[in-house]
Amino acid sequence: MEAAPLPGxxxxxxxxxxxxxxxxxxxxxxxxxxxDLRIEGAGFHAIMGASGSGKSTLMHLVAGLDRxxxxxxxxxxxRIDTLDERALTLYRRRKVGIVFQHFNLLPSMSAxxxxxxxxxxxxxxxxxxEARAMELLGRLGVAERALHRPDALSGGEQQRVAIxxxxxxxPSVVLADEPTGNLDSAASAxxxxxxxxxxxxxxxxxxxxxxxxxxxxxxxxVIVLRDGVVAGAFDTRSPGEEPLDAGAxxxxxxxxxxxxx
Length: 261
Ligand SMILES: Nc1ncnc2c1ncn2[C@@H]1O[C@H](COP(=O)(O)OP(=O)(O)OP(=O)(O)O)[C@@H](O)[C@H]1O
Ligand SMILES: [Mg+2]
Description:
Elements: E1 12-24, E2 27-40, E3 43-48, H1 55-62, E4 70-75, E5 78-79, H2 85-95, E6 96-100, H3 111-122, H4 126-139, H5 155-167, E7 173-177, H6 185-201, E8 205-209, H7 213-216, E9 221-226, E10 229-235, H8 246-257
Parallel strand pairs: 3-8, 3-9, 6-7, 7-8
Antiparallel strand pairs: 1-2, 1-4, 4-5, 9-10
Helix pairs in contact: 3-4, 3-5, 4-5
The structure holds adenosine-5'-triphosphate (ATP) and magnesium ion.
The site of adenosine-5'-triphosphate (ATP) has 12 residues, from strand 1, strand 2 and helix 1.
């Protein structure tokens, strides 16, 4: 798939020939083997694929938490894989929202302070930041929990706080890696409904890794990785057709994810 450069400030993600090799002593694992991917505009997109297909590795590279061994990663019109450490730190704090399972809330801080953390690190004005954080906690339905510390929140409430923090600087891109891995299916369905509404209303591009077809059914488009490359992608809503339900979506994704060798 040939991918032309994105215009200067276009929101979106562009990966070109992305390779990621992990060196383990004398052995080398190629987690990504030439990913070409372009995700444009706002809305909710899912990344699926078998365990070990490279989904988390790809999210780490787009989040600026790690660098590719080869290839290019562009986010919002900026090439991020060649940024220096300082620029990459600012990119992670301001330009991209990250909701990863291991990217936890700080246990000693309230929900409110956790959401304000990026602004506190940036030296932003306290009252303005607090108002923004409260607005987001309200939108995510956890305003009454603002003063609770994470250990006094349920798993779903913690994920809502993490999402509020990811949205703080109005990033054009939010990345989530199995954000509801610890939630029961009713709680995760509610959270996905809310995420898809927020993606539309705030025009953010939300890209989520998930194993759950019911979660992916909330997304506009599903991208499937297989063995370190993009195996294919499909829309869940086509004009004039019924949206794909979870069962039909699971079949399409499994077909693409199935090894061809
Ligand atoms: N830090 C690392 N060092 C060495 N190998 C790694 C490292 N991280 C990932 N890998 C390997 O790279 C491959 C892709 O891993 P990755 O975590 O991206 O898969 P995934 O699609 O997210 O899987 P899952 O669905 O199980 O989360 C796997 O074979 C994994 O063992
Ligand atoms: Mg993973």
